[in-house]
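Final report, section 2: Outcomes. Of the targets proposed, Extracellular solute-binding protein is the one most frequently requested by collaborating groups, and we therefore present its record in full.
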Amino acid sequence: MRDSFSRALLAGIAGFMLFVLAVPAVQGQADLAGAAKREGSVVVYGSIESDVFDVIRKIFEGQYGIRVDYFRASSNGTMDRVLTESRAGKPLYDVVLTNRSPMLILKKAGVFGSYVSPSYERYPAATRDGEGVLSPSYRQVVVSVLYNTRLVKAEEAPKSLADLLDPKWKGKIVMPDPNVHTTTAVWLANLQSVMGAQYRPFVEGLAGQVTLAESFLPVVQKVIVGEFPLGITYVKYVYIFGSEGAPLDYVRLSPLLAEAHHVAISAKAPHPNAARLFVDVFTSRLGLLALAKAGEFVLVPGVYPPIKDADKLRIVLMDDLSEQDLKQFRDQIGTLFLKR
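The predicted structure is given below as tokens.
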């Protein structure tokens, strides 16, 4: 993404910044902020795009003067780096934020500490982690079929998942490899409840139609440059890259499947107070409104990203896969894509 997009996002939240800086901290927050400032910085690992993350970075650094160092990778790349550092006994990260399934795997591995931010009180009780480790789901990443509008006219675009099996799309669809990309595996697995008896024939047919990529970001990049007319990836990219002039639109599937996202702090955070303070800001209403303005589907009633028809979509949160479920899925369904 170009710097112009980042500058536009940051300019767009200037009003939010003025509001935040005008809000006095309560005593507990002031004590935490003082301790965080003495630590001087916070290190965040996550899969949210760097230019979108910069919206939150600007708010946090602007309010507290604490530097934020961000490492961005795919959800799998984030999980792998966290696990590698933790198993080596040298975690460098303070905060992790990515998709629900990798976050649950990391939670089970014991890499996170407990922290319940005051901001969590605004979230429905049913969304909170009973163990106080993961944040409530603050946003959802919505998956659909994106297409290059210079290569595919709206009337010629697929209208359903079944349309992807049309012979005219063979070799013209790119998607992440479900054998290495967890969210794609979760998406494919959840399609079973949507498609019923047509599920197995669909995934078998899809495996013969697609070319595989590492994750969702490379998928949309390949669609934008015209390497492929269609790609299975995040709906939010229609706005994020469309703001730069990319020729993108998305198929209004019904329902659209989405995965929840969470944030957590390291059990051995090098900067524990800055980590807590960052989570407070990130999961605050102000943080969510800023993310929505940047194109994210945040879980705030009545708040939508600036994406056409976003307020009309029927979005269903996906059930997550345990490590055992993920292995079973890849043994049964992932192999179809290996045999291409």
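The mean pLDDT is 91.
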